[in-house]
Amino acid sequence: MSTSDARRGTAGRGKRSGRDNPGYRCAECGWQAAKWVGRCGECQAWGTVMEATSAAPAGITKARPVGVKAQPIGEVAADNAQTWSTGVEELDRVLGGGIVSGAVVLLAGEPGVGKSTLLLDVASKAAQNSRTVLYVTGEESASQVRVRAERIGALRPRLLLTAETDLSTVLGHVEDVQPDLLVVDSVQTIASDAIESSAGSVSQVREVAASLIRVAKERGMATLLVGHVTKDGSIAGPRVLEHLVDVVCQFEGDRHSRLRLVRAVKNRYGPTDEVGCFDLSEVGIVGLTDPSGLFVSQHAQPVPGTCVTVTLEGRRPLVSEVQALVAPTAANNPRRATSGLDNSRVSMILAVLERRAGARLSGNDVYVSTVGGNRLAEPSCDLAVALAVAGAAIDRPLAPGTIAVGEVGLAGEVRPVAGVGRRLAEAARLGFTSAFVPAGTKDAAPAPEGMAVYEVPDVLTALSRATFPLVGGNAGGGRSERG
C-alpha cells in the first residue's frame, strides 16, 4: 500500500457517515446544509443556521389510550373562550372586541415606540376591573417600572410586578399568583436552563414561548408578550413564534411624532384589517377615537400645493393632507424628495403629469410630503398627489373644502377604489363640501348631503375641473384636445 493510499484510508476512517453527521438546519425555513454558514441559502436570514441534532430512528409510534374522548363540536363548552375588555378601547378594536381567556398576544415594535407603556396601561385597567395581573419585566428593574406606573397613574393593588429573566422562576410566579393576565416584557430576555444558548437566541425564544403558551392554554390565562424587531422591521426570533401565538400586533410610530398605530398582522379571534390610534405623551398613552384632525393642517387662506384625501386604515377612514412644493432649479438632475409617501409611486405620478397632462416638471425640484407624520401607502391617494403637485406647479390653490380620492394609472386614467362611500361620509362629517372621485362612483356610493361629487375619468379632466390649466398654461405645453 502506498503512502497516499494509507492517508486516504486514515482520512476515511476519521470522517462521519451521512447518517452520523447531523448537518445544519435553518431555524426560520428549515433549509439544510452540510456545513455551517452565516446566512441561510433559502430565506437569506442571518444567524439562523444551527446544528441539527442527530437521533436514531425510534421506530413506529404506537397508539396510546386517550384520556378524554372526542365529543361532538356542539357539546364542547365555550366558557373558556369568552372575550373580556382590556379597558383600552382602541386595543379592543384591533383585537376584535377584547382579549380571549387563554389567548397569547405578541406585540412587536421598535425600541422606544411605547410598547411597555401601552401594556402597563392595559395591566392597570385589568387590575382595576378586579383581575389579578402579573407583570414580568426582564429589561428593566422593578423600581423603573414602578416609576413609570406612577407617572401614568397605573398603581393598582391587584397589579403584581416582578423582575425576572429565568423561565423556571417566571413559571413559579405564575403558580404562586395564578393571574388572569400575564404580561412578559420581553420574551427575548427570558432564558431557560434547559437550553445552553444565551437569552434571545432562536432556541431560547422558541422554548420560552412554547412554555408560556402551554401554561396559558392550561390555565385559561391571557398572555401579552413583547417582541423585539429587526432593522428591517420584522419580528426578531424564529418565524415559528408568530405561528404559535394567537394574535400578532405591530406597534408603529415615528419617534418625532406622538401618534402611534397598532395593527393586527394575525388574529385568530377577530379581523386583521383594523387599526388602533394612540397619542403617546409624558403622562401616558391615550386612545384616539377620532384622529383625523391630526393629519390636516389649518390655513387662514387656501395654500397652493395642498390637497386632502381620505384613506382607509382597516375599516376606519382617515382624512390626510398631501403637500407639494415645485421649485425651479439650475441643477442637471432635479430633486425628487418624499416624506410619508412611496417615492417610486410619486415618481410615477410625476411622469403621468408630464406625459398625459403636459406639465413641465423636468426643470424643477419637487417635494411631496404628508402632514402629521402619517404614512400613506394606499393607491387611493394618487389623485390627491397629482392635484397637489399641479397646484404647486402653477401656484394656484384648490377650492376650500375639496378632497380627492382615486388611483392614477400610467395611461392617465383614474381608477376606482374600495370604500368610497365611507370616505365621502367621513369627509362630509368633517365639513368638506366637494370631492373628486373616479368615474362610476355615484352609482355605488351616493353623495352625502351637502357635498358636491365630481366624477373624473382621467387626470386631465380632474385638472381641468380643478381649474389647473396645465395644458397650454404656465406649467405645460402639449396637446389640448381634451382640455
Automatic annotation (TrEMBL):
Annotated function: DNA-dependent ATPase involved in processing of recombination intermediates, plays a role in repairing DNA breaks. Stimulates the branch migration of RecA-mediated strand transfer reactions, allowing the 3' invading strand to extend heteroduplex DNA faster. Binds ssDNA in the presence of ADP but not other nucleotides, has ATPase activity that is stimulated by ssDNA and various branched DNA structures, but inhibited by SSB. Does not have RecA's homology-searching function.
Residues annotated as domain RecA family profile: 80-229
Region ranges (Lon-protease-like): 365-483
MF terms (GO), sorted A to Z: ATP binding; ATP-dependent DNA damage sensor activity; damaged DNA binding; hydrolase activity; zinc ion binding
Gene3D superfamilies, sorted: 3.30.230.10, P-loop containing nucleotide triphosphate hydrolases (3.40.50.300)
Annotated motif RadA KNRFG motif, positions: 266-270
Name of the molecule in the record: DNA repair protein RadA
PANTHER family: DNA REPAIR PROTEIN RADA, DNA REPAIR PROTEIN RADA-LIKE PROTEIN
Domain of life: Bacteria
Native species: Kineosporia babensis
Domain comment quoted from the record: The middle region has homology to RecA with ATPase motifs including the RadA KNRFG motif, while the C-terminus is homologous to Lon protease.
Similarity comment: Belongs to the RecA family. RadA subfamily.
Residues the record lists as binding ATP: G109, E110, P111, G112, V113, G114, K115, S116
A Pfam family matched in the record: Zn_ribbon_LapB
The keyword DNA-binding is assigned to this record: yes
Keyword terms, alphabetized: ATP-binding, DNA damage, DNA repair, DNA-binding, Hydrolase, Metal-binding, Nucleotide-binding, Stress response, Zinc, Zinc-finger
Keyword DNA repair: yes
GO terms, biological process: recombinational repair
Listed GO CC annotations: cytosol
Gene from which the chain derives: radA
Disordered, as annotated region: 1-21
